[in-house]
């Protein structure tokens, strides 16, 4: 359950604050029509890429099952660090690369969610009532991660990032 809280915190920080900070700090560097379109719609495109990753990973349980979900949390922490640093320094400015990384952020989040739920439902150590309680607690941990990310993102975007031109 703590893996879900951590993964959701990381991915919602990335999809809310860090993508916006990165976009605002990059500015329009490609003044052609495609570059302007990508810059103008970058936030939506980042979220689209994220959702593609989530969809693919949540659809992959029949192909791959991951019992050590902490590995997904560790990978997501790496992406979180990359996006945090990039949102301030913009050392990676290419939207195509950022979109690809965002797909992987979604892959980690979706894989974590679906594998945690799978592990709970198929646990031999828990009886039916304990599984039900654990599933409920998992959704609470999801929400705690999202709420913490939303509050932190709000503070970060209003206090730390420069205002968009």
Give an overview of the whole structure.
The protein has 165 residues and is mainly alpha-helical. Helix content is 78%, strand content 0%. Helix 3 (42-58) runs parallel beside helix 5.
Chart the SSEs and their pairings.
Blueprint: H1 2-26, H2 33-40, H3 42-58, H4 70-89, H5 95-121, H6 128-159
Features:
165 residues, 6 helices
Name the beta content range: under 5%
SSE pattern, N- to C-terminal: HHHHHH
Task: Figure out the total of helices.
Answer: 6
Helical content class: over 70%
Whole-number count of domains? 1
3D shape: elongated
Radius of gyration: 17 Å
Mean pLDDT comes to 88
Spatial gap, N to C terminus: 41 Å
Main structural class: mainly alpha
How many β-strand stretches? 0
Main beta sheet strand tally, sense and closure = none
Low-confidence stretches: none
Produce a short descriptive summary.
By secondary structure, the protein is an all-alpha fold. It has one domain (about 1-160).
């Amino acid at each position: 359950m703590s893996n879900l809280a951590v993964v959701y915190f990381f991915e919602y920080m990335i999809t809310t604050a860090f993508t916006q900070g990165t976009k605002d700090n990059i500015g329009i560097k490609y003044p052609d029509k495609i570059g302007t379109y990508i810059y103008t719609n970058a936030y939506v495109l980042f979220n689209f890429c994220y959702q593609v990753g989530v969809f693919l990973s949540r659809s992959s349980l029949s192909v791959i099952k991951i019992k050590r979900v902490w590995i997904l949390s560790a990978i997501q922490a790496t992406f979180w660090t990359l996006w945090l640093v990039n949102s301030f320094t913009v050392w990676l400015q290419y939207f195509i690369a950022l979109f690809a990384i965002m797909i992987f952020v979604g892959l980690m989040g979706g894989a974590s969610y679906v594998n945690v739920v799978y592990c709970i439902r198929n646990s031999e150590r828990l009886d039916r009532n304990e599984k039900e309680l654990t599933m409920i607690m998992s959704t609470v941990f999801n929400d705690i991660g999202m709420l913490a990310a939303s509050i932190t993102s709000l503070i970060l975007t209003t206090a730390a990032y420069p205002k968009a031109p």
